[in-house]
């Protein structure tokens, strides 16, 4: 059901965009709308077993907005950005991703949406990450499996774009430290399936 509604919204957005004068440069919306999409770890180095934070920042030019990862109104559930995290390796993504704090809401009566959540300007998404207790020391680059970005201006929504995102990280030398209790079970499960 979710995919169907998302597909309908995507088709509707693409159809709307196709009717816009001058939309022959459909591929150019990304360059006009997006200042940067950046992934990073804080801190950027840690010992095996330690918890760090992954941050994905989407910075847009004025007049554009994007969406959170989650909508509270079911009729708006297709209006989200979608992050697919990598499989456990040197770093293990744990817990649930957190939405941007810079979310505002509006009503969209034509779409029967009472509360559409969106992010004007900049959106920042975070998720906790545990350095695998079995990770060898050294530098690594972590790539998201995918990041589907939805962007609109005041008149149009553009076709979603898959944007590659990666971030550098360094596993420090030393014996593994105990994993935080809150994430111990998830880490244990991830290590047992490798």
UniProtKB/TrEMBL annotation:
Domain of life: Bacteria
Signal peptide location: 1-26
Keywords per UniProt: Signal
Protein name: Protein-disulfide reductase
Source organism (scientific name): Gemmata massiliana
